[in-house]
Amino acid sequence: MAWRYALMIDPAASDDTRTDFDSTFSEVDPSAPALTVGELSTQRGDGIFESIGVVDGHAQEVEAHLQRLAHSAEICELPAPHLGQWREAVRRAEAASGAGESVIKLILSRGVEHGPTPTAWVTVAPAADFTEARTSGIRVAVLDRGYSIDLPGRAPWLLLGAKTLSYAVNMAAIREAKRRGADDAVFVSSDGFVLEAPTASLVIRRGDTFVTPAPNGGILHGTTQLSLFEHLADRGFATAYETLPVSALYEADAAWLLSSVRLAAPITAVDDRPLAVDADLTASFNAYLLSPRD
Amino acid sequence: MAWRYALMIDPAASDDTRTDFDSTFSEVDPSAPALTVGELSTQRGDGIFESIGVVDGHAQEVEAHLQRLAHSAEICELPAPHLGQWREAVRRAEAASGAGESVIKLILSRGVEHGPTPTAWVTVAPAADFTEARTSGIRVAVLDRGYSIDLPGRAPWLLLGAKTLSYAVNMAAIREAKRRGADDAVFVSSDGFVLEAPTASLVIRRGDTFVTPAPNGGILHGTTQLSLFEHLADRGFATAYETLPVSALYEADAAWLLSSVRLAAPITAVDDRPLAVDADLTASFNAYLLSPRD
After folding, report:
1. Which of A48, A130, A161, B151 has the most CB within a 10 Å radius?
2. Where would one find the signal peptide in this protein (chains A, B) (predicted)?
3. pLDDT band per the 50, 70, 90 thresholds, residue A1
């Protein structure tokens, strides 16, 4: 994969009134060294990120991603991001993204150890080809996330609602799913409620209602799921947030994993139980998700 | 803090028979960019590390740290490290460490996204002055780690026994402890058993027996705790690994957090309950821990 663009950002304070950020941006060669060994992102996964899908030069749902970045910063006690500065950085990345599908990644790190400020950067890379996952679907393995459904609210230091750079467990869960013959994982709480996938949100269909696990402080609020729910409402479907036992996934009429870059991937099997795939409905979801969205 | 030394490593395969690693090492300026934005350590905390204490140019317990690095690599499905190569890298770092106390950090990252191999490096930095923590002691806050004591064995994808770069939660727990007026945290399982501190092991004294939580796959086996237990045995004390309810910490005759760089920090209070400190015994622990150990 060739990275297309990288922009280092000197983060402005959130109360900074400036609107010209030229002096805070520095374009770098994405294949050349840009970070020091003292970076806390690299030493401790201590920072936050967002991945924004880009289709033919249009970055999708930028505001929702920026809001979530700010939310993650709050949970992690990082300085509040200056959203105007990030918006402008995304605009520059968007301009460098080219045709087809790509991904803009925003990273806000706590900085260099003992250093004065956070470090931050934005990259653009071409997206992988997800045609197969979007059309033929994916198999998922159910994996225990290890905590009970009511934990996140009483243990905020576990950072469960933040999109942190500490993603080793998410990556290990996907490897475990592949070892089990699946393509992706769905996490369940230790008391048996479905949560989310390591890098995606879950949506199930039950009759004419589309349901996603209720935000409980331990689930990232998926920007793509939010966008799809708006689309479903426009089409006259009911949508709901519910605390869902894992049986609801096994017994769903259909289910999808939703994420910013892969978009809607229909689930063909949960562990060894097949799920029906509605090819036309899924295609309509992805057509919508590939259209320009703000 | 001035970094003293940084060495980039091109990781050799564990079955490589070479003994000359010159061509795999590259000394870099620790304050200059050395890592690319595509680094998976920085994007996902996807890698492992070790921190080795150094006293007057002698790196402590190097073999125990190398063995744990290999153990973490196995859990995280990273290529097995060539221990001869790492040993030589530590030797070079040791030579650059200078007088007084410092810390050698070993980092093995999964590499650059879509890249062919892991990336790896070693740094040396002066240690902070921990005299106060070692003599006056530290207050700890008990924090829920969120999982039950029997979880790690059945959910290896949570990587609970590996020293991964995904340390954002460990850092957040220390911030929460400070917010509560303490200096550090002690994690307990959701079912009430003491585990470890975010960056240290716990040892309690009960009469003439010194006890640390039994390894359960979810606790790092502390190199400093292991070394102290050898020392205690030499002095005729009993040592034990036990599954300890949190009440055992509250009711201990004394307790310490043990780590490679801060060494033995006596606990003066657990939440609001004071603990007695044996200043002479603690001083003898730190004198031992500061002596050259292999």
Report:
1. A48
2. none
3. low
